Amino acid sequence: MNDVLLPWHKPYWQQLRQYVSQQRLPQALLITGKPGLGKKHLAQQFAASLLCTQPGENGLACGQCRDCRLVSAATHPDLIHLKRIEDKTSISVDQIRTLIAQTSLKPQFDGYRIILIDPADALNANAANAFLKYLEEPTERTLVVLLTAMPGKLPATITSRCQKLNLATPGRELACAWLKRQQPALDEQAAEKIVYLAKSAPLLALAFASNGVLAIHDDCFQAWLELANQKTHPVMVAEQWQKWADKPILSWFADWLVDLLKCRSKAPAQKLNNPHLYKSLSALSECPLNPRKVYILYDLVLENLRRQHTPINKQLMFEELLIHWARLNDN
Ligand SMILES: [Zn+2]
Fold first, then answer.
1. pLDDT tens profile 19-73
2. For the range 193-200, what are the long-range contacts, defined as Cβ-Cβ under 8 Å and sequence gap of 24 or more?
3. Do you find a cis peptide bond into 184, omega within 30 degrees of 0?
4. Distance 52 CA to ligand 1 centre (A)
């Protein structure tokens, strides 16, 4: 994929190319943007283009030279990828020490050396400190690229030393058009729904389309509606949902609640997170509904969203939220 520039990356690519053409490549580059925008893809493309000996007209790596072959085999000695070690939640200080030892000499080949840190927010406090010292004493011809969707989690002492590139979310039309090119079998309506679910992050939309996430979303929404109408039981629904706990069900839950309140205040369909749910949510918003209870439940969903990466019992979590939801209009 290194030879294809993602359409929403074009302005950023130009900016990166300018660093090279004007010979003012920063020592550290911080690429931010929400998940699904292809931060890693862009960083890898840029790394490959810096290492390539015969880059093409647009600066993209040729894919053929010795360096390109080493990059695609993930064995290039001057491309270092720093990430969490399996089963670990953070990047440790030992990993940074190894990196410093590894890069104390000049790059192995004549070109640049690139260090990708992904995700940079995984650096724990000690690792961040050690890394800061590394940034304070730069080694020659070395570019560090930090990737994160949560730049706020990085110490300001690090971010202030980085050139920043913040990837914006592309427009819905662009995301939709791109998704349909990747998945020609997808019909217009499904593509649009998926792009809404992915909040216009194209790579996330592609992952959703490839993994049948739309159908799972629609199933969850149906069960949620049935609960509101007392047609099913929270424990049964929770049992099904915990099997899909790797899907963003809590975010959907939060979005449905917001959309429900929007419908209640007569907002038009296109103002909803999920316009295709307008009809069902409008009908639901006609029922007697205590908005204060909806807000309380919404807060509870958000609280669980923040805890979702901790080892909590998903079945119990869903049960609690769904019992709240099913009882929303009990007095
Ligand atoms: Zn090449």
1. 999 999 999 999 999 999 999 999 999 999 999 999 998 899 999 999 999 999 9
2. 193/274, 193/276, 196/172, 196/273, 196/274, 196/275, 196/276, 197/252, 197/274, 198/36, 199/34, 199/169, 199/273, 200/169, 200/170, 200/171, 200/172, 200/175
3. no
4. 4
Q: Are the C-beta atoms of residues 46 and 14 closer than 8 Å to each other?
A: no
Query: Angle at Cα 17 formed by Cα 16 and Cα 22, nearest 5°?
Result: 105
Strands (E), the chain: 28-32, 79-82, 113-117, 142-148, 163-166
What spacing in Å lies between the alpha carbon of 62 and ligand 1's midpoint? 4
- Centre of ligand 1 to C-alpha 56, Å, is 8
Between the CA of 63 and the centroid of ligand 1 the distance, in Å, is 5
Choose the CATH number for 7-166 among 3.30.1050.10, 3.40.50.300, 3.40.630.30, 3.20.20.330. Answer: 3.40.50.300
Q: What is the pTM of this model?
A: 0.89
What are 139's two structure tokens?
């080694």
Q: Rounded to whole angstroms, how far apart are CA atoms 17 and 240?
A: 49
What are the extents of the domains in the chain?
A: 7-166, 212-326
